[in-house]
Amino acid sequence: SGLAALSLDDPNPEAPPQWIQVKLAGRALTVCLVDHSALRMFRSVEIDHATVSEIVEVLAPTLAYAEDELGERPSRLRLCGFGDHDDVGDALGGGLGLAVERVHSPLGTLGASNAGLLGMLATTEVR
C-alpha cells in the first residue's frame, strides 16, 4: 500500500523533485524516497509506538542515502496515515528540517487503511 499511495495527489507539483513519503498504518511504517518521479528507495519496517524519535531513527539513514546518492537532501516530507493535525507528523518535519505536506486523495477521505486502495484507484482508467 505504501507504493500505491505514491500515486495520490501531490499538493505541490512545482516543489523540488526530491522528496520522502512516509506512510503509517498501525505498526507498519513505509518510507519512499522519490527523485524526479522515480522511486529510489523503499523501506518497510515495523515500529513499536510510532513516536517521533522512533520514526526519525528510520528516516535518518534514508536522508543520509539521499544526500550520498542524489547529491542533495530532500526538501519535503509527505505524510500519509498521520491525520491532518497529528502532532507526531508535524514534529517529524521540524525535527528533520523538512517541509511537511499531507497526502490527499480526490477520491475520498484518506486514512491509513485505505491509502493504498485509493492510490491504486487513482491510476485506474475507467472507460
Walk me through what this model shows.
The chain has 127 residues and is α/β, with parallel strands linked by helices. It is built from three helices and five strands, in the order E-E-E-H-E-H-E-H. It has helices at residues 52-70, 87-96, 115-122; strands spanning 18-25, 28-35, 38-46, 76-80, 99-102. A five-stranded mixed sheet has the order 3-2-1-4-5, covered by helices on one side. Strand 4 (76-80), helix 2 and strand 5 form a beta-alpha-beta unit. Helix 1 (52-70) crosses helix 2 (87-96). It is globular. 29% of the residues are buried. The model has no long low-confidence stretch (mean pLDDT 83).
How many helices? 3
Assign a percent range to the helix content: 25-40%
Unreliable residue stretches: none
Overall number of strands: 5
Radius of gyration: 14 Å
Shape: globular
User: Given the helix and strand composition, which structural class is it?
Assistant: alpha/beta
Topology, element by element:
Elements: E1 18-25, E2 28-35, E3 38-46, H1 52-70, E4 76-80, H2 87-96, E5 99-102, H3 115-122
Parallel strand pairs: 1-4, 4-5
Antiparallel strand pairs: 1-2, 2-3
Helix pairs in contact: 1-2
Q: What's the short version?
A:
The protein is α/β, with parallel strands linked by helices. The protein has helices at residues 52-70, 87-96, 115-122, and strands at 18-25, 28-35, 38-46, 76-80, 99-102.
Keywords:
alpha/beta; 127 residues; five-stranded mixed beta sheet; 5 strands
